UniProtKB/TrEMBL annotation:
It comes from the Bacteria. Keywords: Methyltransferase, Transferase. GO terms for biological process: methylation. GO terms for molecular function: methyltransferase activity. The keyword Lyase does not apply. The keyword Transferase applies. This is L-histidine N(Alpha)-methyltransferase. Residues 20-318 form the Histidine-specific methyltransferase SAM-dependent domain. SUPFAM superfamilies: S-adenosyl-L-methionine-dependent methyltransferases. PANTHER family: ERGOTHIONEINE BIOSYNTHESIS PROTEIN 1.
C-alpha cells in the first residue's frame, strides 16, 4: 500500500549546481574550505547515523535521554501543538518521543538529503497512521519557506542534534532570528545544543576508535569525485579533528598527505603536503551563552533541560 506522504518537490535545491559552485569557490579560498552541508549524500547520511551510535559520540544518546526524561515537562510548557516541524530530520528517531508526547495532527520533516528524507518519512507514516506526514527537501540554512498547503497556527519547530553548532555564532544568530520571524506569535522552537566540556571528551567524540567520523569526513571528497568532474583521490587525505578552545568549537579538516594537484571541473588546485581543507566547525555553548544568543534573536527562553553531567542541553524557546 502506498503511504500518504506529501512530498514538496518544489522546495528542492539544485544540489549538484551548488556543490559545483561551492567546491570551486572553497578550493580557491585561503585556507581551503567546503561547507559541511555537503556531507549528507546518501552514504554521508548513513555514516552520520553510524556516528550517532559510536560510544564516544555522546551527543545523540544524551539528547535522547534528556528528551525522554523531559517529555512530560515539554508537553506542559509547549502545550497542545497541531503541527510539528523538524529541521535536519535525518533518520527522524528522536522526534518519535515528541510525536508520542504531543500527538500533533501533522509532521513536516525538512532535510537536505532527499533519499534519506523519503525513507525516514515513509517509516514515520507507517508507524503513526494517525499522523499527516509532509516532507520537504531543502537547505533551510538559506531560507525556511514552509509549503503553502502546510498552514500552521501553533507549530512547534524541533531542531535537534546541535546542528545549530555547525553554523558560526553570527550565522546561528541570523538563523534563530529568521526562525523567530517565520514563526507565528506563540510558536515554539525546541532546540538541542551541545555544551562546552573537557577537551578529551570533545576530541574523542570526533575521533572515534572505529574511524566512522574519519570515513564521514573523507566521504565528502568521494562525493565530489562522484558528482563532479574531478580526479580527487580521498586516500591522499587524512581526517583531522580537534577542539579550538579560543573559538569554542571542534574543527574538522582533511589534510593532504602529500603535495598534489587536484582537478575539479577543468580547474586545477594545488595542495601542499600537510595543507588542510576545512570541512566543519561544531560550536559548543554554555547554558548561559546559548540563552543569550536566543534572547538576542528575540525569543523568550522558557525552559532548559540538561543531563546530570551537563554534556548536552535542550532549550524551549517561544516567539
Ligand atoms: C550534525 N552535526 C551536529 C554533527 C556535529 O557533531 O557537529 C556532525 C558531525 N560531524 C562529525 N561528527 C558529527
Amino acid at each position: 500500500m502506498a503511504l500518504a506522504i506529501h512530498f514538496h518537490d518544489r522546495l528542492q535545491q539544485p544540489h549538484a549546481a551548488s556543490l559545483r559552485e561551492e567546491t570551486l569557490r572553497g578550493f580557491a579560498a585561503t585556507p581551503k574550505q567546503v561547507s559541511p552541508k555537503f556531507f549528507y549524500d546518501r552514504r554521508g547520511s548513513e555514516l552520520f547515523e553510524q556516528i550517532c551510535q559510536q560510544p564516544e559520540y555522546y551527543l545523540t544518546r544524551t539528547e535522547e535521554r534528556i528528551l525522554a526524561d523531559a517529555a512530560g515537562d515539554i508537553r506542559e510548557i509547549a502545550g497542545p501543538r497541531s503541527d510539528l516541524i523538524e529541521l535536519g530530520s535525518g533518520a527522524s528517531r528522536k522526534v518519535r518521543l515528541l510525536l508520542e508526547a504531543l500527538h500533533p495532527a501533522s509532521y513536516l520533516g525538512i532535510d537536505i538529503s532527499e533519499d534519506f528524507l523519503r525513507s525516514s518519512t515513509q517509516r514515520l507514516a507507517a508507524d503513526y497512521p494517525w499522523l499527516e506526514v509532509h516532507a520537504a527537501c531543502t537547505d533551510f540554512s538559506h531560507e525556511l519557506a514552509l509549503p503553502e498547503d502546510f498552514a500552521s497556527e501553533h507549530p512547534l519547530v524541533f531542531f535537534p542534534g546541535s546542528s545549530i553548532g555547525n553554523f558560526t555564532p553570527e550565522e546561528a544568530a541570523a538563523l534563530l532570528r529568521h526562525l523567530h520571524d517565520v514563526l507565528p506569535v506563540g510558536g515554539g522552537l525546541l532546540i538541542g545544543v551541545d555544551l562546552v566540556k573537557p577537551r578529551a571528551v570533545l576530541e574523542a567524540a570526533y575521533n572515534d576508535r572505529a574511524q566512522v567520523t574519519a570515513a564521514f569526513n573523507l566521504n565528502l571528497l568521494q562525493r565530489i569525485g562522484n558528482e563532479l568532474d574531478s580526479d580527487i583521490d580521498p586516500s591522499r587525505f587524512a581526517h583531522h579533528a580537534f577542539f579550538n578552545e579560543a573559538e569554542s568549537r571542534i574543527e574538522m579538516h582533511l589534510v593532504s598527505r602529500q603535495a598534489q594537484d587536484v582537478t575539479v571541473e577543468g580547474r586545477c588546485f594545488h595542495f601542499d603536503a600537510g595543507e588542510s581543507l576545512h570541512t566543519e566547525n561544531s560550536y559548543k555553548y554554555t547554558l548561559h551563552s546559548f540563552a543569550a544568543l536566543a534572547d538576542g534573536a528575540g525569543f523568550d527562553c522558557r525552559a532548559q533541560w540538561t543531563d546530570p553531567r551537563e554534556l548536552f542541553s535542550v532549550h524551549y524557546l517561544q516567539r
